[in-house]
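As the next step, I selected for study one protein, both as residues and as discrete backbone shape codes, as given directly below:
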Amino acid sequence: MDIEQPVNRNFTRREFLSVGAMAGAGLVIMSGCGGSTGPQTGGGGGAGYSGPSVELDFWNGLTGGDGPYMVKLIERFNSQNENIKVKMSAIEWDVFYQKLPSAISVGRGPQIALMQSFYVPTFAARNIVMPLDDVAQSMGLKASDFTPAVWEAGAYEGQRYGIPLDVWPYALYYNKTVMEKGGLDPDKPPQTGDEFISALEQLKAEGIEGWWIEPTWPTVSWLFQSLIPQFGGSLFNEDLTEATINSEPNLEVLTWLTDIVGEGYSPKNVGTDTDDTAFQNDKDAFMWIGPWQINFWKQFKDLEWGVTTVPKVGAEKGTWAGSHNFVIPQQRNQDPNELQASKVFINWIGENSAEWAEAGQVPARESVRETQAFQSLKEQNVFAEELPYVHFSPKLPGFDDIDRNALAPALNQALLLTKEPESALDEANERANQLLKESRETYEG
């Protein structure tokens, strides 16, 4: 068996956040392929495959430290399914989202792909991925197998397009060494907004800027989306026809954040990933970020750290989350054997996702989270505690454009203290409504 694997290393936050500009190397595994017949949706379950030998191309953006974990799972799957061979290609996420539509258009798309949840609505609206309601049903999957918000993140316009593999919420990492330097108990991280501000105040008294807030996309957007549900805010109205970015709850959140910078609890103008460096070098006490940091921090043997649920700053608990979803790209001639084999693969990976959790993820399936294998993962279980109150980005085609070009610039300006929060959000709201109109013309016109 010929296998080309990525470099086995822990990945940085920036790699996970997918702002790279070059395609990564392909990964795995070889065998014969099946013929091409008419289209098929549904039929057959995900438990087994007895058809002719097929080769499945599986595309994703797992170019960092999570890639080798998926490679090992695929190797095991292939060894147990002699008639199915999965060949995985890992491509930087931004390139993946550009490459997939063009590959589909010329009939060279993969049979299976892994997609971040906040892109599923856009690719569903563009008819690039196929509806999976009958696929999920034939696999025996139902809403009760998942946390409701996680299951719903794979749906769009009343149809299912994604099968959730995992969840990655924001949580609070804390540097125990820095907390001790500031006179704080390193085993009692803050749990409320008042406790958090009190800790920052005490750190400041010792000359420590306790929370380095990075004001760049997507970090700042995901931070903002973690806090606004706590204050009852949202980015759009309920039917997603109008932006509500400049609502009073959202203004309260942004004012809270900018006050932290203005009061000197955070340095001004924090550069990309300098908060990582500060945390690693015992200069920063707190980071709000996702579970992809778990294995990154573990490679620094002298770093004393922990992770806890995000503080309850507002009236309700809440945090932002994303999810990897399996999707099946549209094919000109959908081979029923490839489709059945794809369902077997998706179901198998989901059932064995406790091993995937070691990469720094929370399995989407409740049955997997109940296993001893997952329960033994201390840090991942902290993130799992947040699942009852996670919030996903709006299920809106083209949301990425609004996020990058309306929301994030406003948050950036406010946190750089170059624009008042109210003015920044007003401008973001106006820009978002303009982009929302353009998006409707694109996806509904």
